[in-house]
Amino acid sequence: MPHSGSRLPSLKKPYILGINLKILVNALYTGWMLNLPSLGEQIAARRKALGLTQSVLARKAGVGRSTLEALENARLGELGFAKISNILAAIGLELRIQEAGSLRPTLEELMDEDRDDQGLDRQR
Predict the structure, then answer these.
(1) Does residue 2 sit within a domain?
(2) 71-89 confidence digits (pLDDT tens)
(3) Which distant-in-sequence residues (6+ apart) come within 8 Å of 62 by Cβ?
């Protein structure tokens, strides 16, 4: 579903397309592939960041609340592409196909990020 035109709330952690960058970097660095439980975790995080209940998101996406709840809590073995796409669209996200490992950070990039994080911690 298209977004209603109102601005998305500011997210407190660094997000790209609603995915916590630290989780994404760790996932790509270790060669981890996106699976249904991790997708459900990201959907739950985005839904909460947007201030939506499971019932509201399920209604917007055209899926049952019990399906969404099972997805978010890693109790779903499989879910069709159309349902996943509808859920993601309802929270302003999409799936993309890319070469495996194409976004894997270098050791230097990870070390720079760590130094930046430590610098921010010292400023507090």
Answers:
(1) no
(2) 999 999 899 999 999 999 9
(3) 86
